[in-house]
Amino acid sequence: MRKAKTRSYGASAKVSAVKTQAKTMQSTKTLATAMGNTTKAMGAMNKQISPQQIAQTMQNFEKESTKMAMTEELMDDTLEDLLTESGDEEEQEAIVNRVLDEIGIEVSGKLAEAPSAHKGSLADSNAAKDAELEAKLAKLLQVNDD
Could you give the residue ranges of the DSSP H alpha helices within the chain? Predict the structure, then answer.
């Protein structure tokens, strides 16, 4: 009985090994088929597009991209120069003065006579305020000493 049991385990192990080997063979066959299909597809692509042609296309793309970057930089510089010209302000002021002269308004003479809201400089008013604050501080110090 023990021998039969041992033989049964042995036969079961051999059947499992054969089963595993069959699965491995099926996987290998599937992989070989997939590789064959991939090789056919790659061969068809190589016939349609040559690697040299792709390399040349990439070089042309890089060259055109560089040209575009240089053109963009030139345009940016030109626009920046146009927008930052100082002559525009002077030209506008000259046109306004010419129009006002034609109407009969003298701007420069009138502005000198126009009343101003504040006479004196900012430094003078700050000095006066500082002197006033120092006087108050001195009075407070005298009151505290007494």
Answer: 2-48, 51-83, 87-103, 107-113, 122-145
